[in-house]
Design brief:
The chain has about 240 residues and is α+β, with helices and mostly antiparallel strands. The protein is built from eight helices and eight strands, in the order H-H-H-H-E-E-H-E-E-H-E-E-H-E-H-E. The chain has a four-stranded antiparallel beta sheet with strand order 3-1-2-8. Strands 5-6-4-7 form a four-stranded antiparallel beta sheet.
């Protein structure tokens, strides 16, 4: 379970079942299509480049990626997609943000509301919890051969705003969204292997939950993730 991004945790699990992989491919295709609206060339579209890299981490076939890009640029027809952001509360009143991409916002709203109601949570109005989060570029490092304090220093010198060590030993480096590519390049030039880069909603403060609340929150996240429209789930939970 992740303190701010449920889908990233799923991405790092091995042996994903075929049915789940198919669902992930569908979500990745939507993400790529939305990103490609800003241009179909990943060399000049950093958002598209990140989406493609993420798709590759799931071993998504190249043909699927190319079709998703064409859908985004309008070369292939498909249902109109729009980005959505829902806000809510979970067990012990944790704050939750849900990023999604949908071709039917009303249907998706119904799915999200039902998942909350069945899992000790509730949907909130626009702006209710978003103020508890900051939009940040995120660089994740899983493997490293340098001391932790040295990596942190290199990140700050490269322009990072903050760092966060997770319980599993992973390091998340936070940047201003406009500085993400610059920091990424600087760290790679230092020989540091990066697991992923993304744009995320980072909680300003994290809440420590009991084991029972953690299990309840995980059930809620899994229920929310059942919606094909849900891309990312963020919560202000302390790892």
């Amino acid at each position: 379970m992740s303190g701010h991004s449920h889908a990233k945790t799923v991405a790092h699990k091995k042996g994903i079942a075929a049915a789940q992989r198919s669902k992930i491919f569908s979500k990745m295709a939507s993400e790529i299509a939305i990103a490609a609206k800003g241009g179909g060339d990943p060399a000049s579209n950093s958002r598209l480049r990140m989406a493609i890299d993420r798709a590759h981490s799931f071993n998504m076939p190249t043909l699927n990626i190319e079709r998703a890009i064409k859908r985004g640029t309008g070369e292939e027809k498909g249902a109109a997609l729009e980005e959505i952001l829902f806000e809510g509360y979970g067990p012990n009143n944790i704050a939750i943000l849900i990023e999604g991409i949908s071709d039917n916002k009303n249907r998706t709203l119904g799915e999200i509301k039902q998942a909350f109601e069945k899992n000790k949570g509730k949907l909130a109005g626009e702006g209710a919890v978003r103020w508890m989060f900051d939009r940040r570029g995120t660089i994740t490092i899983l493997a490293y051969d340098k001391p932790k304090d040295e990596i942190e220093l290199l990140a700050i010198e490269a322009g990072a705003q903050d760092t966060y060590w997770k319980e599993d030993g992973a390091l998340e480096i936070y940047t201003d969204p406009t500085e993400l590519e610059k920091v990424k390049k600087a760290l790679e030039e230092q020989g540091i292997t990066l697991e992923s880069t993304s744009l995320d909603w980072i909680p300003k403060e994290r809440v420590l939950l009991s084991q029972a609340d953690i299990e309840s929150a995980e059930k809620l996240f899994l229920a929310l993730d059942e919606s094909d429209a849900v891309q990312e789930i963020y919560a202000n939970i302390k790892d």
